[in-house]
Write a structure and sequence with these properties.
The chain is of the alpha+beta class and 117 residues long. The protein has a single domain (4-116), classed as Trna Endonuclease, Chain: A, domain 1 (3-Layer(aba) Sandwich). The chain contains 3 helices and 5 strands. The protein has helices spanning 4-21, 61-75, 98-116, and strands at residues 28-29, 43-44, 49-55, 80-86, 93-95. The strands form 2 sheets. The protein has a 3-stranded mixed sheet. The protein has a two-stranded antiparallel ribbon with strand order 1-2.
Length: 117
């Protein structure tokens, strides 16, 4: 049986690698080995996004989102909380609250209308 702490670490490293493959070269796992870094998120490097990473077969997504919201609020940085999650042999998924989705979508929509005009 795989230790859940090492599986979590592996998931965080895989998520950071995936983000870098998408062109976000600054994404990295927050170092936990020397104690707390001051960053509660599992990974950092996506501006304005609080990243909670889960690498589990059975995820209670509502609890995971609640944790991301709670922890992002505690950091008081105004970042949008997301949960990046995957099961073995599946693609990464990202879950966020609907109001946060529309915050992002409005920005996307504005950028599209700027280029259409």
């Amino acid at each position: 049986m795989i230790n859940s702490k090492s599986k979590g670490k592996r998931g965080e490293l895989m998520w950071a690698k995936f983000c870098r493959e998408q062109g976000y070269d600054n994404v990295r796992r927050t170092a936990q080995f020397c104690g707390k870094t001051g960053d509660a998120s599992d990974c950092v490097g996506l501006p304005y996004i609080y990243q909670e990473v889960k690498n589990v077969e059975h995820l209670n997504i509502h609890n995971a989102v609640a944790q991301a919201v709670r922890d992002s609020t505690a950091e008081n940085k105004g970042n949008i909380p997301i949960v990046a999650h995957k099961k073995n042999r599946t693609s990464w998924l990202v879950t966020l609250r609907a109001e946060d989705f529309f915050t992002i979508y409005r920005e996307f929509e504005c950028s599209k209308s700027d280029t259409d005009g």
